């Protein structure tokens, strides 16, 4: 079922636009909307919201058929066949999870919001065992866990596949990122970035960016959860997921 029917005039206009956009695939040099509204259409079944762009990623919640959702960005991932045909397009929702665009009515068969921005690679001298999506998936598998309270630095290090960070506190880690030129203070933290904070007790805090202003980490309502990147106390900035002392 197509998301939008096109008459002859609309079809001609769409064809002309396609030439300009060179297909409009995620990552193309074209500015889409910053956000958009969609409607879940599964013909009755609740749709799993996943930690990444594929059905193999953790399903940490569901959204009911007919629900209105807000799309923050879109990315390519696993091919899925659903209500609106087959697509590799996945939508990041305002709660930080992803759903296949095959089940979301947006008024278009293609991309409608900006492509999700991913953080750059860490130095090859200390490559993380897990990718950004793998780390985020690990974190979502522990959603609402209270086992990592006061262990935010260990949480992000283990999410990226390490046994530990090698630093005693997130404040020390943030200081290192800053003094070595890795800490960025402008722009919204891209997906997979480490997001650093000061806190009142001097130990600091760190979380993992989901992109588009969302993070997952400890100390969200007393456990692992999703928050806005400015919801924690004193925001310092973000860095690539580089943990040089990790083990």
UniProtKB/TrEMBL annotation:
The keyword Signal applies. It comes from the Bacteria. Keywords: Signal. Residues 1-31 form the signal peptide. This is CHAP domain-containing protein. It comes from Micromonospora halotolerans.
């Amino acid at each position: 079922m197509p998301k939008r029917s096109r008459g002859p005039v609309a079809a001609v206009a769409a064809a002309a636009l396609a030439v300009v956009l060179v297909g409009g695939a995620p990552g193309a040099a074209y500015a889409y909307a910053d956000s958009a509204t969609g409607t879940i259409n599964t013909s009755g079944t609740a749709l799993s919201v996943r930690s990444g762009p594929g059905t193999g990623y953790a399903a940490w919640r569901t959204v009911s058929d007919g629900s209105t959702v807000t799309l923050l960005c879109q990315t390519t991932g696993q091919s899925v066949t659903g209500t609106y045909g087959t697509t590799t397009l996945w939508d990041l929702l305002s709660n930080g999870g992803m759903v296949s665009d095959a089940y979301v009515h947006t008024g278009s068969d293609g991309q409608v919001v900006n492509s999700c921005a991913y953080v750059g690679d860490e130095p090859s001298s200390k490559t993380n065992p897990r990718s950004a999506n793998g780390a985020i998936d690990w974190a979502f598998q522990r959603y609402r866990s209270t086992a990592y309270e006061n262990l935010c630095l260990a949480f992000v290090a283990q999410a990226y596949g390490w046994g530990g960070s090698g630093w005693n506190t997130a404040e020390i880690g943030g200081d290192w990122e800053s003094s070595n030129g890795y800490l960025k203070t402008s722009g919204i933290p891209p997906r997979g970035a480490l997001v650093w904070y000061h806190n009142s007790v001097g130990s600091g805090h760190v979380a993992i960016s989901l992109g588009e202003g969302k993070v997952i980490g400890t100390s969200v309502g007393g456990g692992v959860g999703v928050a806005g990147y400015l919801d924690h106390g004193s925001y310092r900035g973000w860095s690539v997921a580089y943990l040089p002392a990790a083990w």
